[in-house]
């Protein structure tokens, strides 16, 4: 199992969460909530209002999201869904645990409940330069006050 941190449309209550709970695509088990240890710019960009975490460590905010434990099948689905490695790149990032629901008495589970875990995160280094000038967010909600509702793929 791999650990993945999601900050955008794959979170609970967001437009693409349905993929995280679709066992035909693989298994994803919610572990808890967290935020990036380093600051990153989270922008909403493009004509479909897609959330992107720009891979510019030290700029922006500590981005909030959810931590999942996923199997290889789900990780492969997420790579395809996120257009990895062209649109997004999957990299390891340090995530500060804010709330932990993960079960288990292993040393790893205890450490996670107490602080920082490494997770795969889909961020991007392949973006138009003007995106750096967009407003930075610390968390994402498709129906947030930014007014930039995400356009589902099936509606494009």
TrEMBL record:
Gene3D superfamilies membership: Gamma-glutamyl cyclotransferase-like
GO cellular component, one term: cytosol
Enzyme Commission number(s): 4.3.2.8
GO biological process: modified amino acid catabolic process
Name under which the protein is recorded: Gamma-glutamylaminecyclotransferase
InterPro entries cross-referenced by the UniProt entry: AIG2-like_dom (IPR009288), GGACT (IPR039126), GGCT-like (IPR013024), GGCT-like_sf (IPR036568)
Enzyme class: lyase
Keyword Zinc: no
Keywords of this entry: Lyase
Origin species: Pygoscelis papua
Protein function: Catalyzes the formation of 5-oxo-L-proline from L-gamma-glutamyl-L-epsilon-lysine.
């Amino acid at each position: 199992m791999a650990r993945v941190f999601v900050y955008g449309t794959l979170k609970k209550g967001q437009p693409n969460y349905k993929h995280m709970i679709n066992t035909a695509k693989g298994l994803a088990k919610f572990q808890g909530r967290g935020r990036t240890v380093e600051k990153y710019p989270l922008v909403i960009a493009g004509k479909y209002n897609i959330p992107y975490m720009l891979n510019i460590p030290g700029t922006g905010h500590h981005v909030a999201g959810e931590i999942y434990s996923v199997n290889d099948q789900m990780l492969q689905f997420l790579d395809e869904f996120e257009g990895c490695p062209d649109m997004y790149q999957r990299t390891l990032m340090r995530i500060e645990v804010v709330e932990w629901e993960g079960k288990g008495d292993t040393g790893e589970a205890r450490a996670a409940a107490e602080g920082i875990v490494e997770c795969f995160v889909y961020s991007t280094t392949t973006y138009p330069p003007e995106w750096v000038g967009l407003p930075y967010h610390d968390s994402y909600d498709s129906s947030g006050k930014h007014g930039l509702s995400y356009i589902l793929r099936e509606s494009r």
